[in-house]
Amino acid sequence: MKQQLLRFVAVGALVFLLEIALFFALVQFSVPPFVANVVSRGSIVFIAFWLQGRYTFQTSNLDRAALMRYWLLWVVLTTLSTWSVNTIANLPHEYALMIGKPLTEMVAAMISFLVARRWVFRLAPAAALADGETQ
């Protein structure tokens, strides 16, 4: 699990940088934060699915069922993220959004790792043991 977590962080950092750059670019062009959040997260969802499946969880079985599970996870996390970002955007502090958006995504990433590992990519027990996890 430790190696998977390290791979998840590496892939997640790349995806995060792409998503956060797009989010703040949209906000700079006066797109409301809740719209910018959905657009930026939606723009990277398939890239994230492929990278996490191939590199983090090292599965070659990126089938439609896994994609649908990933999409459902994305919908739930995007809904929570969008609510959080919209709430933070309405705070009177000048830097609230610049601090709050990355923190929101870090929490979402932690949830995403656990759910993706156990449900989306359904890591088989043999694969978990090969990655150093004990039962």
Notes on the structure:
The model has no long low-confidence stretch (mean pLDDT 88). The protein has five helices and no strands. It is mostly helical. The protein has one domain.
Q: Please tell me how large the radius of gyration is.
A: 16 Å
Query: Biggest sheet, in brief?
Result: none
List segments where confidence is low: pLDDT < 50 over at least 5 consecutive residues.
none
Number of strands: 0
Number of domains: 1
Report mean pLDDT, rounded to a whole number.
88
Overall helicity = over 70%
The N- and C-terminal alpha carbons lie at a distance of: 12 Å
What is the N-to-C succession of helices and strands?
Answer: HHHHH
Oligomer: single chain
Features:
mainly alpha, elongated
Furnish the topology, listing elements before pairings.
Elements lengths: L1 H27 L4 H24 L7 H26 L6 H25 L4 H6 L5
Question: In brief, what are we looking at here?
Answer:
The chain has 135 residues and is mainly α.
